[in-house]
Amino acid sequence: MPFETWAAFAAASAVLLIIPGPTILLVVSYALGQGWRTAFPMAVGVALGDFTAMTLSMLGIGALLAASATVFTILKWIGAAYLVYLGIKLFRAGGTLNAEPRTDAASAAKMMGHAWLVTALNPKSITFFVAFLPQFLDHNADFLTQMLIFETTFLALAFANAFGYALVAARARNLVRNPKAIGIFNKTGGTLLVGAGIATVAVRSGS
């Protein structure tokens, strides 16, 4: 795999992960209510959930890739359009992070399981991966090797992101409840998502 492809995937993944979604809302809720001790179990649960959703998505993508190059190409175009759609939706989102503190005394195992369920069983997660991952796959290269590299990279970033959000929420609670800060997050992330979708189309058209 060319280093440029891996670097582009890692950068895009980092941008997408930092954007607040259902999983991050759950992480922040636990951290607001129970402090920094939630960081590790929640981060592990998020990583396991992303592993589940990402593996299911990759297996489906692999089947499409093996069945028809044309269908796979169509999927890439649909994925690019989906990234643009997500970017516009995020850009227009408000500046609030609706995460209420969870005051129930949950064990580490319960928090981990909750994070896994929310992340893995969210249909949007699989839909997102199906739209996102094909943009970086090379149908001429070994699929399993690419799958291993992409999953390892994404899961490491997902763990670090959830861990970081939990620590910030526990120690800087005003920041995660600041509408201006969340608004900047949403507009920046939305702009980058739209740019990623357009860049994908431009590269594909040029080639």
How would you portray this structure in words?
The protein has one domain. It is built from 9 helices and no strands. It has helices at about 5-20, 20-35, 40-65, 70-90, 110-120, 125-130, 145-170, 175, 180-205. Helix 1 (about 5-20) runs parallel beside helix 7. The protein is mostly helical. The chain is globular. The longest helix is centred in the first third of the chain and has 29 residues, at about 40-65. The model has no long low-confidence stretch (mean pLDDT about 75). It comes from Mesorhizobium zhangyense. InterPro entries: LeuE-type. This is LysE family translocator. Pfam families: LysE. Keywords: Cell membrane, Membrane, Transmembrane, Transmembrane helix.
Task: Write a concise keyword list for the protein shown above.
single chain; 207 residues; mainly alpha; 9 helices; cell membrane; amino acid transmembrane transporter activity; LysE family translocator; transmembrane helix; transmembrane
Task: Supply Rg.
Answer: 17 Å
Overall 3D shape: globular
Could you give the count of β-strands?
A: 0
- Show unreliable segments: none
Give the topology string: H per helix, E per strand.
HHHHHHHHH
Q: Mind summarizing the main beta sheet?
A: none
Oligomeric organization of the protein chains = single chain
Number of helices: 9
Helix content: over 70%
Secondary structure class reads mainly alpha
Whole-number mean pLDDT: 77
Strand content: under 5%
Distance between the termini: 18 Å
Please tell me the total number of domains.
1
